[in-house]
Design a protein that fits this description.
It is a single chain. This protein is of the alpha+beta class. It has 3 helices and 3 strands. It has helices at 15-24, 36-40, 47-62; strands at 6-9, 66-74, 77-84. The chain has a 3-stranded mixed beta sheet, with helices on both faces. The longest helix is centred in the middle third of the chain and has 16 residues, at 47-62.
Length: 86
């Protein structure tokens, strides 16, 4: 977790990134730096694309190297992708 510069975690519910930060001990300044789904929207069917593009934009804007995007799928499942800029 210390090598990840930014995290974008989908907010199906507002508590999700809060619990994620607590459980993973991630500082607020690295999590959903542009506001997450509550601020930017939760487009049904396109949320994965939205969080990935938001993460890539935040990484470029802040000139950081590594990021992780995560999203729940439902039924207790989820997926994540780690991104590294070169």
């Amino acid at each position: 977790k210390d090598v990840v510069d930014l995290w974008e975690v989908n907010e199906a519910f507002a508590v999700v990134p809060m619990a994620f930060m607590r459980d993973m001990q991630i500082s607020r300044d690295k999590m959903n730096v542009n506001g997450g789904a509550c601020a930017l929207g939760h487009p049904i069917g396109a949320s994965g694309a939205r969080i990935l593009v938001t993460l890539l934009n935040a990484m470029e804007t802040r000139d950081v190297r590594r990021g992780v995007a995560a999203i729940c799928i439902g039924g207790g499942e989820g997926t994540a992708i780690a991104i590294e800029r070169t």
